[in-house]
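Whiteboard transcription, Tuesday session. T.W. wrote the structure tokens on the left side:
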């Protein structure tokens, strides 16, 4: 709903942009001095796979304002020693997603490189309205992933939501560098940019 205040097209566009970003906003509008107060769910990042990249990404994402949850059924990986001060779930991703209820303020990232762990998480993500879905792996790995998910009934438009290979192409290969590229892509998607346009220019 646009509410009871009659706003012009320009003001409405500004208000909608503030809502999309989840940030309150003051503006000098033709209708007068207006303040849009946005009450939104917190930004969340659900990371599947307690791997080296995740150690760096969880810290960076927390600094960027995300509530981070790391999901990995492999208890040897998902330890408090490796992930201090990070919410951990040692559950299968599909079960974890069902309990976490990802929404439009959520980014879902799969990093295990193990189809039996990543694919169920991706399937749950595709059935939700999360703003970002990303999966680690080469183009060849991603092509096989798309084949498997197609067999589960997802169409090309749905599968195009998955950012794979994940992250902006910054050239780095160290875990922290990959984490930076992932977070940069998530932030771009959050603000309505198309990060894939830079990765695969026409």
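and on the right, the sequence the group agreed on:
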């Amino acid at each position: 709903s646009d509410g009871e205040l009659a706003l012009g097209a320009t003001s409405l566009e500004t208000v909608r942009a503030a809502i999309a970003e989840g940030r309150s906003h003051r503006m000098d509008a033709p209708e007068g001095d207006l303040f849009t107060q946005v009450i939104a769910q917190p930004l969340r990042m659900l990371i599947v796979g307690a791997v080296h990249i995740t150690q760096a990404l969880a810290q960076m994402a927390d600094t960027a304002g995300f509530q981070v949850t790391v999901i990995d059924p492999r208890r040897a990986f998902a330890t408090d020693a490796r992930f201090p001060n990070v919410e951990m779930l040692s559950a299968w991703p599909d079960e974890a997603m069902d309990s976490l209820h990802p929404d439009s303020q959520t980014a879902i990232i799969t990093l295990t490189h193990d189809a039996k762990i990543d694919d169920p998480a991706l399937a749950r993500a595709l059935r939700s309205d999360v703003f970002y879905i990303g999966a680690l792996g080469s183009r060849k790995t991603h092509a096989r992933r798309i084949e498997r998910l197609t067999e589960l009934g997802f169409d090309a438009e749905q599968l195009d939501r998955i950012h794979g290979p994940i992250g902006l192409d910054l050239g780095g290969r160290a875990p922290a560098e990959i984490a930076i590229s992932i977070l940069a892509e998530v932030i771009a998607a959050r603000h309505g940019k198309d990060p894939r346009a830079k990765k695969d220019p026409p």
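Someone added at the bottom: The mean pLDDT is 87.
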